[in-house]
Design goal:
Largest sheet: 8 strands, parallel
Radius of gyration: 19 Å
Helix content: 25-40%
Number of helices: 12
Distance between the termini: 12 Å
Number of strands: 13
Shape: globular
Oligomer: single chain
Bound molecules: (4S)-2,6-dioxohexahydropyrimidine-4-carboxylic acid, zinc ion
Strand content: 5-15%
Length: 341
């Protein structure tokens, strides 16, 4: 039995800095299976902050794809919005073909030490307006930086008033709430007219039990961290129902086993088997027919052409390797029911 899927879009992925060892090794997993991917700008030590940075990064990605004989893949470039971003930064980036600006609130995840505080985000009216004017998408890591009185599991829900403010104040700005993890965030996304969301493959399966319920599992740790079974069920419903507003973004974020163990970095490397994992989840929900929609619903948001190519999955068991490129991939050592042909 075969499953024919569109060669769709992974609208949130980390390829890492182009001088890192991971960079040439991880791109192919995404580039072979998707026609485009939105590439995150939180590279270290040098984040992607301008159109010129994005141009150089795009060329390096395309060179890797080309060297590996991969065709038909378009990296969609982002810049990170920091305190120093101006309307001119936006206009120049737009001219360079950058399609989205990404906000990391200060200190909430990997390489976000240059992120925005909520008050500084709310002062950047001219930047949000400049993005709306050129049709650049605002991608949000939707977690509020912790304060002394803030509980970390509430960080996403605590960010929702900021999302509401952005949506209402800049009603022509397209906003994507990235990797949502809570029932409350899903509800807000569906309610606010100019707001969309990505959901990862891992958040459709994991709960906090997988991270801290038994022995601590650093390889199941990502930001935002997986939440309750009820939250996970709300995500399952949202992803599999065929919504126009909710689409796939893997947030595939490789960290070496060594750095996971030494520093506890957040991030799950899901790119190698993301499609197979999604097929399992959608099949278990009895919603396999809606998987093509989940893989392509983001196209109108990013003005992407309709997918014409297809990817075939066969019903064949495969074991996920325990280690790939010194990284433990998502579902390492487990047997999956589907395999990309
Ligand atoms: O788990 C995560 N890892 N979440 C993010 O927002 C960033 C990412 C990374 O860059 O490793
Ligand atoms: Zn991410």
């Amino acid at each position: 039995m075969n499953l024919l899927l569109p060669r769709g879009h992974d609208l949130h992925v980390h390829f890492r800095s182009y001088d890192s060892k991971l960079f040439p090794n991880v791109i192919g997993y995404t580039a072979r299976r998707f026609s485009s991917a939105l590439v995150m700008p939180n590279t270290s030590p040098n984040p992607i902050l301008t159109g010129a940075d994005a141009d150089a990064y795009r060329h390096a990605i395309l060179k890797v794809a080309d060297d590996q004989g991969i065709t038909g893949f378009t990296p969609l470039m982002t810049i990170q919005i920091t305190e120093s971003t101006t309307p001119k930064t936006i206009a120049d980036a737009h001219t360079s073909g950058v399609v989205a600006g990404k906000v990391y609130p200060l200190g909430v995840t990997t390489n976000s030490g240059n992120g925005l505080t909520i008050p500084s985000l709310m002062r950047k009216h001219d930047v949000w307006q400049a993005m709306a004017d050129v049709g650049m998408v605002l991608c949000l890591h939707g977690e509020r930086p912790f304060s002394a009185n803030e509980f970390c599991l509430q960080a996403e829900v605590s960010f929702l008033p900021t999302l509401q403010w952005l949506s209402k104040t800049f009603c022509l700005l397209k906003i994507v709430m990235e990797h949502v993890t809570t029932a409350e965030a899903v509800e807000e996304v569906l309610r606010l007219p100019n707001v969309y969301a990505t959901i990862t493959a891992h958040h459709l399966r994991l709960t906090l039990n997988d991270v801290i319920g038994g022995n601590l599992d650093p390889h199941a740790f990502c930001k935002p961290v997986a939440k309750t079974p009820e939250d996970r069920n709300a995500l399952l419903l949202a992803a599999t129902c065929g919504s126009d507003k909710i689409f796939f973004g893997s947030d595939s974020a490789p960290h070496t086993i060594e750095s996971k163990h030494l520093s506890g970095c957040a991030g799950i490397f899901s790119a190698p088997h993301a499609l197979e994992c999604l097929a399992e989840v959608f099949e278990d929900e009895g919603k396999l027919d809606n998987l093509p929609k989940f893989l392509t619903a983001g196209a109108p948001v990013y003005n992407l052409p309709a997918s014409t190519e297809t990817i075939t999955l066969e019903r064949k068991e495969q074991e996920v390797p325990k280690v790939l490129h010194q990284v433990r991939p998502y579902r390492a050592g487990e047997t999956l029911r589907w395999k990309v042909v």
